[in-house]
Write a structure and sequence with these properties.
The protein contains 8 helices and 4 strands. By secondary structure, it is α+β, with helices and mostly antiparallel strands. The protein has a domain of about 140 residues. Strands 1-4 form a two-stranded parallel ribbon. Strands 2-3 form a two-stranded antiparallel ribbon. The radius of gyration is 22 Å and the shape is globular.
């Protein structure tokens, strides 16, 4: 029987040398981090503009009590008030959260003139900062050797992967992206989620 996918093929070719792992994070912390980093801190128009477009279509009136105002240096034309965390969650739960991306799929065609041709395929794609792990990492397709949880207090799972792969020869564990503002993840979680309507979290 042939290989089921490219990972199956690699594992057959490399045997024990292939070590597959992925990193996961608490989904609520991941969403909050995306909001705080991409919407509030960066004022990222590529993230905010689709949200504002969706809000204009789907909400008659905005509740601006918890909507941050644009900071200096934020050159955003679509709104003076950034989406609130509650509005951000509503958008993520909607169909508007998917953007169409076109990709070329190449095929080899046996015609009088042998040639490669392609067709355009439309993919419904979410922003990678909040795409579900099931979509991104294929846990039902890929047989991972290890799953690292970002929240593991003693970092033992991360150290295991570094040792198992031999990466300690080339690098050491270090924080690359700390929580903005210096507060703890727990304090930000409490602050932001306490302002979210219960109906949104169901």
């Amino acid at each position: 029987m042939g290989p089921k996918n490219q990972f199956d093929l690699l594992s057959r070719l490399l045997g024990d040398e292939l070590f597959l792992f992925t990193v996961v994070r608490n989904p609520l912390d991941r969403i909050l981090s995306a909001y705080r980093d991409r919407v509030v801190a960066e004022c990222n128009a590529a993230v905010i503009d689709p949200i504002m477009k969706w809000l204009k279509i789907n909400q008659e009136r905005r509740d601006l009590r918890f909507s941050p105002t644009r900071q200096s240096g934020c050159y955003l034309e679509s709104t003076e008030f950034l989406p609130s965390f509650n509005e951000f969650l509503l958008y993520l739960a909607s169909d508007g959260n998917h953007q169409v991306q076109y990709i070329r799929v190449y095929t080899y065609v046996e015609t009088p003139v042998k040639q490669f041709s392609y067709i355009l395929c439309a993919l419904m794609q979410q922003n990678p900062h909040w795409t579900p792990y099931g979509t991104n990492c294929g846990p039902c397709v890929v047989d991972y050797d290890a799953v690292i949880k970002l929240e593991t207090e003693d970092k033992s799972d991360q150290e295991f992967v570094v040792r198992r792969t031999g990466m300690e020869k080339f690098t050491s564990l270090q924080y690359m992206h700390r929580t903005l503002g210096g507060g703890s993840t727990e304090s930000y979680r409490k602050e932001y989620f306490s302002k979210v309507d219960c109906s949104v979290l169901r």
